[in-house]
Amino acid sequence: METNHEELLDEILAIEAIYPDNLERKVEDCSIVIIKVPQHEYIKIQISFPPEYPSTLPPRLLDVNIIPDKSDVFDANYLKQLFQEVLDSVFHPGIVCLFDFLTELDAVLYEGEGPGEDSTSKQQDLKELVPIDPFEGWFASDPITDRGSTFMAFATHITSEEDAFMKLDILKTDTKMRKVSHIMSAWRTKVKNENGQEIKYQDSDDDGEAAAGSRMLHLITIMDVWGVMVIVARWFGGAHIGPDRFRHINSTAREAVLRAGFKNSQ
Question: Where does the RWD domain lie (predicted)?
């Protein structure tokens, strides 16, 4: 408990240093705070931190208040539900999350504020911006760690290139995925045009890890699987591991593809 409390105090002190005018009120033990959303100070949120935070339990959003001038733009009850979804999505046991939460709120509210939109359309836009589970529909390999770098692959079923890119964009919203050094990818899909002809699409992306994407594309080609997108995330540990990285990339990619239910024809 003491460790949790110290981590919470350190987190609140950091937030006060980063946003000195935004932390409006806190109880003595910092278990409840009221903070104005950075860049959107017309919204105040009240957050409760349970004794088990951050070890096992996430914070809870107690209340959302909007100044009268903005009350016709956003509905407080809706924002409370939405903000709690964001809070749940950024929390990972053992890691403090308040800064990540406030950063996500800034992005969500910024995207949702467009001139000429009514309240209903804004709220619908906000719903679409925050996926509840970025990993929905993805199948993961076991991670491989080598000299400080960690490799982990994810595979999913796709129906088109647009579907592939959309799922990848959603996956990248996860807090841990935003911290990776490289997200290499490869995909293959078949679609029918208006004349009923089957068109094949396949491509890859190295994302800075030279030749990695093309090797992954070669892998799923020899596996003879279609309607698949596979990505390999690498968290770089500072040490270069040479050609071994390609062995880890292919190994995790193949495992994720098989776990996604694609049959290896080889």
Answer: 10-112
In CATH, what is the architecture of 2-129? Answer: Roll (3.10)
User: How many residues are there in the chain?
Assistant: 266
Average pLDDT over all residues of the chain: 85
Distance CA 168, CA 138 (A): 10
Q: Are strands 149-157 and 144-146 parallel, antiparallel or unpaired?
A: antiparallel
Higher pLDDT, 229 or 179: 229
| Contact predicate 201/191, CB 8 Å | yes
Q: How far apart are CA 97 and CA 53, in angstroms?
A: 10
Residues 6+ apart with CB under 8 A from 212: 182, 184, 206, 232, 245, 246, 249
The string of pLDDT tens digits covering residues 239-253 is 889 999 999 999 999
Strand-pair partners of 146: 149
The ranges assigned to domains in the chain are 2-129, 139-259
Mean pLDDT of 108-118: 52
Given a contact cutoff of 8 angstroms between Cβ atoms, the answer to whether 203 and 187 are in contact is yes
Mark 155-178 as b/e (b = at least 16 C-beta within 10 Å).
bbbbeeeebbeebbebbebbbebe
